[in-house]
Amino acid sequence: MSEASVSVKVKKKYNIPGYLFILPSILFFVFYILYPIVFVGWSSVYNWSTLKNMTFVGLENYTKIFQDKVFWTTMRNSLFWIITTVPIQATLGFFFAYIIEERLHKKKGFYRTIFFLPVATSVAVVAIVWGKMLQPYQGIITHYLSLIGIKGQMNILGMPNTAIFGCILANIWEWTGWSMIMYVAGMSQIPEDMKEAAKIDGATKWKEIRYIYFPALSSTHKSLLMLGIIGSLQTFGLIYTMTGGGPNHASEMPGTYIFQMGFTNQQMGYASALSMVTLVFALVMTIIQVKGLGAGDFMKKGDE
Predict the structure, then answer these.
(1) Which of 37, 208, 231, 235 counts the most CB atoms within 10 A of its CB?
(2) Is the entire prediction scored with pTM above 0.90?
(3) Could you read off the pLDDT of 21-64 as tens digits, one per residue?
(4) Alpha helices in 66-210, H assignment, sequence order
(5) Can you tell me the distance from the alpha carbon of 98 to that of 282, in angstroms, rounded to the nearest whole number?
């Protein structure tokens, strides 16, 4: 037997434990991610409310989607959600991270915990608390608005023009801490000699941020952008608890609309088609981001 065949056998022998280690992850992916996607794609070409009562309709559900005004409202709300929440959360997260890591000298862990606490809080709790705060007569936000001269009924969540802004405000409060932690991790990787060189050259704090921190944190910016896009399209609990997608679908998001069509209206085939279109939209947005800006830390291979 040649040495090459022996080495191949040895490699195969030692690879078996590796496959066993990744087997749980593979099974999880197959049963909880791949299978649901395949099932939803298959069921989207049927008209059904239960699995025992399925009628093949082909692409009829997809044709209905592009004639559905509510669907286009959800897409518009999703894009608006992305272009408002993602940059605001990133900006605030960077600001808080910079203050805590570079300007404070004591109790850094305490402030990190305080700002990250909303992220660890249940989305239902966040939605209920903010819903109470935004109530038209008894809400604390309405109370303080009246103190500065804005009086009368301020039903922010009950008016079509302002409902989504109330939900966005709650979302920003909840997830800014995540952006902060990402930037804290990124700042810890910036070499100290770069900071010291900038101080020796007499750079102001603004120039340090502009020419050192921002370029050095480019991978964090890109990662937060990708996570923000995907997270925005997955928004469900906050909207469903605060407004239910109303009033008149003004704050409707893809997740809440899919839930309404599938579980409230019992149009599971149409809800499946909506899910597939939303998935394709998310993939397209992600591909555009990866091709245009890169994917931050997610696509790095090996040491540079």
Answers:
(1) 235
(2) no
(3) 999 999 999 999 999 999 999 999 999 988 888 999 999 999 99
(4) 69-98, 108-120, 123-133, 140-147, 163-187, 192-200, 205-208
(5) 31
